[in-house]
Amino acid sequence: MLKKSFIFLKSIFIIPFGILAGEFEIDPIQKSDFDNLHGPNIYSEDYINKQPGVLSLAELLKSVEKSYPLVLAAEKLLTEAEYNYLAAEGAFDLQFRSIGTTKPLGFYQNNASDSFIEKPTPLGGTSFFAGYRIGRGNFPAYDGRRETNDLGEVRAGALIPLFRNQQIDKNRADLRKAEIDRKLAELSIQKLKIELIREATRRYWKWVATGQDYLVYKDLLEIARVREGQIIDRIKLGDLPKIESSDNRRAILQRESQFVTAERELHKAAIDLSLFLREPDGKLITPNNNRLPIGFPKTVDPKELDIELSLKKAIKNRPEIKDMEFKRDKVSVDRDLGYNAAKPQVDLLVAASQDFGPGSITRAKPELEASLVLNVPLQTRRPRGLIGASEAKLSQLDQELQFTKDKIQTEIHDTISEVIATGKRVAIAKSEFELAKKLEELERERFFLGDSTLLIVNIREQTTSEAAIREIKALFDHHTAVANYKAAIASF
């Protein structure tokens, strides 16, 4: 009789883990994978992502990129930079000017009109112009240039800087700065996304970990509940003292408290995750338990973490490096403007004109005119001040750039060390759980044979659950460390 009771109780006490997690909708074919009581489940991420209805990390990160408000707000910075670039391009817009003059009274009565278009270009600072003017009536000798033949005069020409404004001028400087600002806006979006993805990934694994904790405590509670009725039967048969029933009841109350806490933590983790999981219109989505993955991905092999290669990737991809380099480029533009302002202005003005229609024979032939404009600054305090300030700023940025590279190097070393250490912790915690589980099963068999007490069995079960929780915590820390490593090398 005692042997039959032992077999019956053993078959009940060792409850498949998947049966106790029915709300997670696990495929019945996979239930054998959950036979270990209150233990975490470790699968490859490919397998996790293939489970129907499961919220994958990729889905979460896609939601962050498409619907997260701060990302959408940051993208407006890029739109603003695009419009600022368009405004800077406006310095090279085609301009039309016109002036008309009439003198109806006086000794010299005349009418004149002068219209022309001007096109600044970034081609060496050269500006082109073309125009038409016509003058009718009597003009004094000193104002004879306003007089034209009957059909007016057509003219065209160019202003070509030969020294100052040849390599750079204010318009081209503003355009270059606007282009740099556009790239800086893109980098600011990248920096924000990296931080958001890292935080979203951490919250995702926190949600997965609390889900595993929830199952551990649910399993632990169910064991005590199933055992309660069987203990009462054994007390009636005289196999156990009455105190064992009270002790099991105490264990149930203790485990109910743990379960309620785990349930609250799971709900809190889901709420925290909803900040990043959103509908396309931005509405928050709180994932339910049915969307929990069945476990964690496998740990990262330390052999895949090469420090030198990781550092090269970080220097190449980290937006902070590019941000500092673009800021240097922007200051270099101001320095170039200072050097440009210190140069003498030497401009070549070339113009050709042709009058049409009846009129003076002196205006009948085409004319070509060339002028040289010279402007030499006698004092250069403004350019020298601009150059000095720019050089000082560049020196400052160089130091900050070097510090940023040093900081990234320490982050790479630290995150790789963290990934390796947490991976070792996972292996140790797994071994601890397996040993605790084995001891628990042996202790339960001793209890059935009358060689142990329920108090010791409860302690063994509690120890096993604590080992399981430590393994889950180690897995969470490991995958959080992996997220930190990916953020350090900007590989998201």
Automatic annotation (TrEMBL):
Gene3D superfamilies: Outer membrane efflux proteins (OEP)
Endpoints of the signal sequence: none
Compartments it resides in: Cell outer membrane
Keywords: Cell outer membrane, Membrane, Transmembrane, Transmembrane beta strand
A cellular-component GO term for this protein: cell outer membrane
GO molecular function annotations of the record: efflux transmembrane transporter activity; porin activity
Coarse class of the protein's main subcellular location: membrane
SUPFAM superfamilies tied to this protein: Outer membrane efflux proteins (OEP) (SSF56954)
Name by which UniProt lists this protein: TolC family protein
Biological classification of the source: Bacteria, Pseudomonadati, Spirochaetota, Spirochaetia, Leptospirales
